[in-house]
Task: structure prediction
Amino acid sequence: MGTPLTIACFLWQRNTTGFQLPSKVDYGPEHVRRLGNGLKRHLSIPHNFVCITDQVEAVQAVGVATIPLWDKCRYLGGCFNRLYTFSSDMRDTLGERFACIDIDAVVVSDVTHLFTRSEDFLINRYIPSPKGDQAPEQGYNGGLYMMDAGARSVVWDTFDPVSSPLSIEAAAGRVVGTDQAWARMVLGPNEATWGPEDGVYEARSIGHKPLPDNACLVFFAGRRDPSVCGHKWVRENWL
Result:
């Protein structure tokens, strides 16, 4: 058997400087614990679930292994700090192959098929708002990506803390977010992706309706969050 896949999430204190994320939710160790529980229930391959965090003791207290959060331009706000996962340094930190997943995800059924894909890099597809208030060209959503360590190191190697955020700002209306916007700008539109055809959905497209038959993983982007959502499918799966 090969080395177990590492699946990493992030938890850090909200930035008071730089780009401000739209969510007002105070994410905490409970989000990490429930995400890990969902993966235990619905991922049948060997895997190591870890949290990259500045709240090491609190996360360890809920039974999840931790890696201390690095500071790579954290002052820029948003999720720019997460871009370091594209560095070839991750081979020593997370192993030869790893996935990163947001802690606002709800695992609702078997996700093994997502994490047994063989491409050297995959990322979740960005789905435009049903209201049409964001541009579809964004292409990628940083809530889930998986790679061979260093496979897209160009994303980190070309990031400049001064000029790169300005490039993203200049592209407003075409790209959305921070780290995912930079990845889209550097990588172009043709990377392998997951999407609704794979059972990966955004909560705003489901709402209070029953889950689609193929649903396996649902993300709560922006201001939405499973901890404040009363939909039946959330209550049954976010445990």
Observations:
- The chain has one domain: 5-237.
- The chain has a mean pLDDT of 92.
- Residues 45 and 116 are 8 Å apart (CA to CA).
- The first helix runs from residue 29 to 42.
